[in-house]
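Input record, target 12 of the design panel.
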């Protein structure tokens, strides 16, 4: 799913994804505190839907101190494709360590 804004949120889309998939992974290029992951979790609880797993990818509650281009920062903070794949595999019971360093990212 691609949710380009937090409001308004398409609750039906989130509920359908939670019911039709093995789990959900949210990815956001800012802190996970009060972000997309929280909204997805709230919508699931509101509708009584429990995804198989729910993983949040984004910055923990840290102040970013690294500079670089967007690709470098995504990799440094664990927001790149490797991190998304690793989170999905972990949620499904498979472990894969993403390549590269991780600074304040979550999985």
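The sequence produced for target 12 reads:
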């Amino acid at each position: 799913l691609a949710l380009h804004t937090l409001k308004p949120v398409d609750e039906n889309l989130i509920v359908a994804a939670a019911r039709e998939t093995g789990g959900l992974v949210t990815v956001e290029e800012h802190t996970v505190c009060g972000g997309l992951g929280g909204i997805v979790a709230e919508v699931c609880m509101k509708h009584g839907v429990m995804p198989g797993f729910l993983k949040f990818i984004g910055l923990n509650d840290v102040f970013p101190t690294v500079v670089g281009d967007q690709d470098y920062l995504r990799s440094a903070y664990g927001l790149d494709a490797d991190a998304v794949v690793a989170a999905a595999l972990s949620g499904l019971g498979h472990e894969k360590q993403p390549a590269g360093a991780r600074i304040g990212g979550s999985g």
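The first strand starts at residue 24 and ends at 31.
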